[in-house]
Every structure is written in C-alpha cells, then in structure tokens.
Amino acid sequence: MPYLNGESSHWLALSPPHSSSPSPLPTERQDLVIVGGGMTGLWSAYYARQAHPDWQITIVEAKHIGYGASGRNGGWLSTLLPGNRAKYAEAVERARATDPTGPVGSAGLSGVESVRSFQSALFDSIDEVLEVLEQEGIDAHQVRGGHIDIAQSEAGMARLRELFDGNEEYGYGREDMRFLDVEETRAHINVDNAQGSLFFPGTARIDPALLTEGLARVLKNQGVRICEDTSAGHIGKGQVSTNRGPVSGDTIFVCLEGYSDTVTGDLPGLEGRQVIPVFSSMIATEPLSADAWDAIGWEGRECLGDTAHTFIYAQRTEDDRIALGGRGAPYAFGSGLPGDGRVPAEVVELLRTRLSSLFPDLEVEVAHAWRGALGVTRDWCAGIFFDADQRIGVARGYAGHGVTATHLAAKTLLDRASGQSTPLTALPWNDHYSGQWEPEPFRWLGIRSMYRIFNIADEWERVTGAKRTSLLARFGSRLAGLHE
C-alpha cells in the first residue's frame, strides 16, 4: 500500500494545522531574541521568562514551531550525552593547562570529572523536563519506561560490555544501567536472536511535536512573541535581519542546529564550516493488532536501540505503532537540507528490512516515512558559545542526542548570558571547538565512505559470527571521530 512520504514527520502530521498568518514583528527593542523555534529556542524562552517576567522576548522561526529536528526526531528523552566523552575530557585537560581562568579550566575538575558532571546534569534535565510537562499540563505522551540497547550478536555483546565500562567511568551509577540476560531482554521486548541487552531506566519516551507545541502554547500564554514564517538572514550585534524586517534585541540566541548555515554573521561557534546537516530517516507503521503486541511485548514503552554500527532507534507510540529510525542517504552534497522530509524509496525499504530483522514474524505496513537534519560537528561534540561583546549566544552540534541536551543547553546559554560563573558554565561543552569540516567533495566522499564501512562491518559480523567488533568498524569509527 502507498505510504505518506515527507510532510515533515509523523508527529507533525498528526498536529493541528498551523496558522497561515504569522505574528507581527515587534517594533520595540527586545530583551532577548531567539532565532530558531525548536527545542533549544523554546526552552531558552521558557527559562528566560521564569527568571525575568518583565522581559520582552521574541522567537523567530523560518517555517513553524518544531519544523526541524525538534519535530522529526525519535522521541527519546534519554541519558545519552551529545558527543564523544573522551574528546570532551581531553579538551578540558588542555583548557586547564592553557586557560585556567576560562569557564571550563577554572572549575578545577579533571577531564573525566568534568564529563561526569556533564552526565549528572543531563540526568537532572530529564527529571526537570518531566516536571515542567506535568506542571504546565503538557501531554507529550511521556512515559518513563527507560531505554534498552539490544545485542543480536556476540560482537554486539562485546560492545555492550565496553559501553558499560565507559559509562561507569564517565558518570553512570549502577542504578542508571544494568545488564539483562536473554530471557530478561525478551521479557521487555521479544527481539529475534537477542543475546542480551543493557537497560537504562532513566530515559522517557515522548512525542516530540506535542512537546514543542505544548511549550509554544505555554510561552504564548506567558507573553512570549513567536513569529513563524520569518526567516532570519544576517545576525549582528543587537539585530536580526529577517525576510519581514529587522528585529532588534539586547541579547540574541542562535538555536538552528542543522540549519545553522542558513544565517550569516560573525557568530561564535559557527565560524567557517563547523556544523553540517546529516540526515536521519524514520518510518512509522500502521497501528499493530493486540495479538501482535502480545507476541512482541514492549509493555513498558521502552525506547529501543541496538548495537549495530548502522544503529537503529525506535519506540512504541501512544497509538500502538512502531516508529523506527536509522541512517540511509545520510548527507547531501554541499550540505543540502532535507526540505519537507521526503525519503528515497531505497532508504524506506532499508528501514523496513531492519524492522523485519528485529521481528521476522511480524507483518507490518509502513504508514509514513520522513527524515530530518542533525547538526553534526567534525568531532561529533556539541558546543555552547557566548560572545559577551556582541551578546550573541549559539548552541549547536547535538548529533542526534538533542531532546535532553536542548533543555540543558538553554539553561547553560542563559547562565552564560548572565555573566555569572555557575556549575553549568563550567561544563565541558562550553566553548568546545570541534574543528572545521573538510571542503567538498572530500566531505561528501568521507561521510558516504564512513557509512559504507559501517554497513560492510555489520554484514561481516553477521556472516562470520564475529565475537568482537571488526577492525574495519574500528577504523571507520576513528575516521569519523566517534571512537572514545
């Protein structure tokens, strides 16, 4: 049967239609102007309003609230840190040696201790997001069922053991994760050929469109101006130019993630080509029958991941579909953007086949396919920046782990803008420089080659029954800057 392809996402397709009449631009100078109506921008406005009830706050959004990654993601409010932990730790050690009075070096923490603080702050963010949703009456279909990473091979189990050890080093306690054997794993989700899994109880499943739209509704009721259909152009000290006219403000936050290249200006953390859009695609099935769910389980509404190099992420939705995402056609030459999210047919088939490998006895029909753009830096680490002279702040580079990180980024940006030293301004993503991406065509060739290597490595491990991660996959991870 034909399926819906594009139209942003399954989540947004179920939402009420957006108004065709954008709010008028403010004529008076604003205290805070936010460029980007995704989760970072919305959380920034929310906490700015809590701290400063008298501020004039405006959000400008090129399309509509949640149009980018914030409305297209897999809905994991997860414990996953947005970046390579070893690279953050190394950067902290360099900062302590070269800039001991800077926001990171002055904290006096070692690199590992700094990353452990980062992880702790992310744990706190999950709690805080869920508290805000409850307090503000936002129903985002949130269920704190945890997330489960399942291995379907011995090599995958070896990676889970490495992950467990790394998590312990960088801030997870024994209450934050535990191994499940085959029977325990299948009691959660009956995945074919499951060898075991790691379970992380802290993660919550959400509907990302309901979260963003709920926050926007609260902000409008609190007097925050949200100007949709308003494309920002040049951003400079005190002013954002848009297709509808200028907006002036004392402080400006740029929260564009994979769309960062759509604006110009001397912007901290965005000089040159530091961020590129990398695509992740998703499918949502038609609702499954009660008999199908009896066979699968998944009663806890856990978020589901796996240990493949070309990994997947999935959830059981509120209306009993499976929404599953993964890579496929990950990058467009010249850092092109995904538009309305239409997915090539071969990628839809790839995801459907991957779903069948998890549940081979399940007959499913794809109802909707879409894709979105992740903001990815050269070392896959996120960064928070604030230029005190221009009073411009930037958050970027979540690399697909942004649902929790956007909340923490917003609070960190506001602390940076305040000029105060706080525990958040000492976290290692502050002023983290990731380097520049290679020029085209090397960038396109490198990214395509990386994913090709991972595909070959997955197939090699499957065919050979390898007990450890293949050398090819380890090479690919180092090439991509993913290896810790």
Explain this structure.
- This protein is of the alpha/beta class and 484 residues long.
- It is 34% helix and 20% strand.
- It has 12 helices and 19 strands.
- Strands 1-17-13-16-15-14-5-7-6 form a 9-stranded mixed sheet.
- A hairpin with a 2-residue loop joins strand 10 (232-236) and strand 11.
- Helix 2 (39-51) runs parallel beside helix 7 (208-221), helix 3 (85-98) crosses helix 4 and helix 4 crosses helix 10 (402-418).
- The radius of gyration is 22 Å and the shape is globular.
- It starts with a strand and ends with a helix.
- The model has no long low-confidence stretch (mean pLDDT 93).
* Radius of gyration, whole Å: 22 Å
Question: Helical percent range?
Answer: 25-40%
User: Terminal Cα separation, in Å?
Assistant: 43 Å
Oligomer: single chain
Largest sheet: 9 strands, mixed
Shape by Cα distribution: globular
Which ranges are low-confidence, i.e. pLDDT below 50, for 5 or more consecutive residues?
A: none
Based on DSSP secondary structure assignment, what is the total number of beta strands? Answer: 19
Widest beta sheet: strand line-up? 1-17-13-16-15-14-5-7-6
Secondary-structure blueprint:
Layout: E1 4-5, H1 10-13, E2 30-35, H2 39-51, E3 57-60, E4 76-77, H3 85-98, H4 111-135, E5 147-151, H5 154-169, E6 178-180, H6 182-188, E7 196-200, E8 204-205, H7 208-221, E9 225-227, E10 232-236, E11 239-242, E12 245-254, E13 276-285, H8 290-296, E14 303-306, E15 312-316, E16 322-326, H9 345-358, E17 366-376, E18 383-387, E19 392-396, H10 402-418, H11 442-464, H12 471-480
Parallel strand pairs: 1-17, 2-3, 2-12, 3-9, 5-14, 12-19
Antiparallel strand pairs: 4-8, 5-7, 6-7, 10-11, 11-12, 13-16, 13-17, 14-15, 15-16, 18-19
Helix pairs in contact: 2-7, 2-10, 3-4, 4-10, 11-12
